Structure formats: C-alpha cells, structure tokens
Predict the structure of Acetamidase/formamidase family protein.
Amino acid sequence: MSRTTVSYTDDRIYEFTPALEPADTAADGESLTVETVDSLEGAIQKDTDRLQSIPDEVNAATGPIAVAGATPGDVLRVDIEAIRVTEDRGRVVTAPAFGLQQDAADIEHPFTRMTPIDGDSVEFGDVSVPIQPVIGTIGVAPATDSYSTLVPHDHGGNLDTTDMTAGTTAYFPVFQDGAMLAMGDAKAAMADGEMCGTGVEIGTEIDVTLDVVSDPTVSLDRPLVETDSAWKTIASAETMEIAATLANRDLMALLEATHDWETTEAYLFSSLVGGLEISQVVDPLVTVRNAVPKEYLDDPFGAA
Amino acid sequence: MSRTTVSYTDDRIYEFTPALEPADTAADGESLTVETVDSLEGAIQKDTDRLQSIPDEVNAATGPIAVAGATPGDVLRVDIEAIRVTEDRGRVVTAPAFGLQQDAADIEHPFTRMTPIDGDSVEFGDVSVPIQPVIGTIGVAPATDSYSTLVPHDHGGNLDTTDMTAGTTAYFPVFQDGAMLAMGDAKAAMADGEMCGTGVEIGTEIDVTLDVVSDPTVSLDRPLVETDSAWKTIASAETMEIAATLANRDLMALLEATHDWETTEAYLFSSLVGGLEISQVVDPLVTVRNAVPKEYLDDPFGAA
C-alpha cells in the first residue's frame, strides 16, 4: 500500500463538528502524511504584514481522516512520528485583543516578526532557537457541540500543547464513527503558554500512524499524551483553575486503574510526582495538563 | 568562623511583616544551616491523625536571618546547597475547604497518609517515590503589608515551588534593611501544583549561602530562581491568569536587559522557548513561573 498524503489544499476544516464528512479514510494501523498550512494561511509574509484582527477562519486543520473501525467509546491512538517544516521562514505575531499581555500599552498590537529557518534553527533577529515542531490544533469530531478550530475542548482542537511533537503519542476519545481526525496550526517552536498568541507559525508535513483501541479498559473523556518519560492528561476550560481540576481528576482515574487505590489516595499521590503544566493561556478556552512519570502508570491502552 | 545553625525551636515566624526583628545576623557571603519543622509542627504522626482545619499558625518559617549590608533595592542571593530530611517519615494530607479538589464528594477531607522514608525514597503504600526536597515557604520581610506564612506574594513566602531545591539559587528583592530571610514548610517530594494541598511534609536541615547583590543593574520586584538549565521568574496572584501575566512581564524585563530588544520583541520571544509553569494552585494566592533556558539570558546579577 503506497503511503497516503492528505493535504490542506484539498481537505481542510475550520470547525470540528459532530457530523464531519471524511476527506480520506485510513485503515486501522495505517501510516500517512498530513500536509498543513501555517495558521494564518500565508497572509503574513513580511514584517510589515500585520494581523489587524483574528480572521474568522483561522487554524485550518487538514482532514478530516476517518479511521476504519473506530466507533464511539473507542480511543484513537495517534503516533506522531515526524514533523517537517515546509517553509523557509515562519512568523511570530501579536494581534489586537489577543494574547496574554493584550492590555499592555507598551506592547504593539498588531506586530509581526518573520523568523527565517536556518538548518535546524529558527532565527529570531540574531538569536537562534532550535526547531522543536508542535502541532497546535489536533482533534476529532466532538460528541454533540461544534467548535471552531481556534477552540480547544474535550475533542482536542486548538490545544497548543508542546507535547504534540515528533516521538510522542496522542490519544483521543472517539465520539463519532471513524473518529474524524484533523490537524494543523503547526509551529516550528513554541513556549508553554504561547503567551503572545502564537509560536513560530509555519507549514509542515506530519507523519502519523493511526490505531483504534477498541473497547478500552480505561475510558477517555479528554485527550491524553504519552511522551518518552510521562503520561499527561489534557483539559481545556474557561479558567486555568477549572482546567487544572479536570486534568487532575483525569489523572486520578488513570492512577486508580493502575494501583489498588481509593480516589483519595490517587489524589494524594498526584500531589507528589510530576504535576500540573500549562499548555496555553491565550485561546478562547485555556489548556492545562497533569503529568505523571511513566514508572507510576501502566499503559492504559496496552495489551490486557 | 564556625557554621551557624538557626533552628525553629528558638526562632520561627508565622507572618512575614515589614518590621521583623532578626533572630540571627549573617555576614554577607556567610554559609549557614537552617533547621525547619514540618508545616504541621508534629501534629500528624499516624494515619488516624486528621487535620480538621488549617491551623491559625501553620508553615512555621525558621528565622528571620538578617544579612549584613542588605538594604532596600538590593537583591538577596540564596544558594540552596543541600536539604536533608530529619524525620524517618513524612505525611501527605487533605483538610476540609483546602486543595484543588476540595469540592469533590468522593474525596475524603480530612485524610492522612504517613509516608516512611527508606534511604533515598519516600514510601507511599507500596510505591516508592525518590526524595526530591522542596522548600515550600521562603521569603524576606515585605515592603509595606504583612503576609501569613501560608500566603505567597512579592516577598516570597508560601511559594511552594519545586525549583526551591538543592543545587538552585533563589533571588529575592530586599525591601527592608537586612532582608530578614526565613524559610520552612519543606517537603520530601512535591508535584508541580501541590494539588491535594501538601507534598510529603517533613522536617529538614537546609544549607544555604547568603550574598547581597548591591545596587543591581536589574531591579527585582518578585522572586527569581536559577536552576541548572533555566532562569524562572515567580509571581503570585489571585488567579493563575494574573500570576502568569506578572511572571511573563518580569521575564520580558530580564530578556530586555540581555538583548537589544523593544518590549514587544521580548514578548514575542517569550512565546517561543521555555514557558509558563505552575508552582501551586492551592494557597490563598496561586503561583506561576515563567522559565527561559539559560542560553538566552545573561546572569542579571553577574559581574558588570
């Protein structure tokens, strides 16, 4: 079977809806490549290009990709194998009424800084930053409500989570037949928090392998990511306090699935290792994760 | 000069006030040892000891230690050289109306789990967690208001920041003559977030060296910590969003001191590397830090 490429040029969405129609269908276990366009779709190409407002359609997500056999209650496993930047420059921007410091009078909104790619680095003026690509928006068809690709929620979406990078595995609840995976809004580099509202926005090619975990022994309400060293629950909500409460609650459920613990014991243990991390504080809902080192958790979706 | 030991048995405070009287005076550059008692002062010694409410006096901080020559506008540098646990067991607890999940009906408040120390590990039931000590409360005399040792603010206090550990250096603004350093509330292990409201609370001996940075070229409004790999600003506020905004603003000032950047450029750059981290979400004010890898920042208090 030749490797399928799904491209934003033909197949992209600006809204995760319960009734997404598939652009492509992947077999369970199939590896494919997803081409993504920068979140501003080429509108910002020089420092004098400024973003006067957030576009109505932004964060184009390539897809959706139906995965054969995925049915509601399953878990979709996405191995992120490689992310290659496909432009020779990215861009970091501010826009009015957007970003952590949007009310600061001494910060320019809008402002643009183009960031050339040089080998494995991004150039910010005379400072080099290593390329560490991040998939900003990645998710599946939601259960009942629809979400713009600018919004993160239980289906994923605009999670802006630095762990969505090559070498890690993301897990999503399957709410609709086929799951309907879509992704985009990639960055060549991004800080936890994404304070100014963007990272280095850039086009990419992403290699993934998709697997359906049927009838998982642990149910999943929200996204989860597995890195080399940790499992991390991911939750989005109106405030960081609420998102933290949800992510911590999800982690407690995973700890209870591994250990012979009451909920209170899982709660106490969650307060001792790993901990809360910030994904982003700038989207319409904010995103927090709760990490636990892998040695304390069995693979919730491993062989029985 | 023999090494001075300052102990909680003689010298402890429950409030950081502007007019603290020194328990001891250290020379600029002096190394000393600080003995701290567990945050609950021995009240919890077995699983059936429960914390019915947060005590009026809690988080005893050993000190205060005046540092000779420190005057307002200076910066106090605290090299944390070693933290030794001094009990054979710690404790993790919940208490009513306290902690991230305080409203959850399925979590017991109060609840206690004693955690024996075994070599380099803490035992939580049959799970071993490595000892990674944290100084929960550390700070100096504040500028104008007084703060219970349960509260974190610009003077430090109950920062509950995992980076306050052996091998790192903490910096505090000097608001009063002598700075008046005090510390306590140590943990043998703690997650970022301190979700249940405590880590493994335990008594410790802490070795520190204290230096005064006179007339710093960079002024400091809030605490700062230097780890092996990063500089991290630390801010406490009523919400995580506000704390994040302050910590990010403090980091921008440091970036501007190193690079020839406008504030807007420092803001964009802060969105590309390192990022926001959560210290704790359970104290009367919450605490967030903003990290930047060391290669992007000159030592703000290094030799001119």
Observations:
- The domain at 4-216 of chain A is CATH 2.60.120.580 (Jelly Rolls).
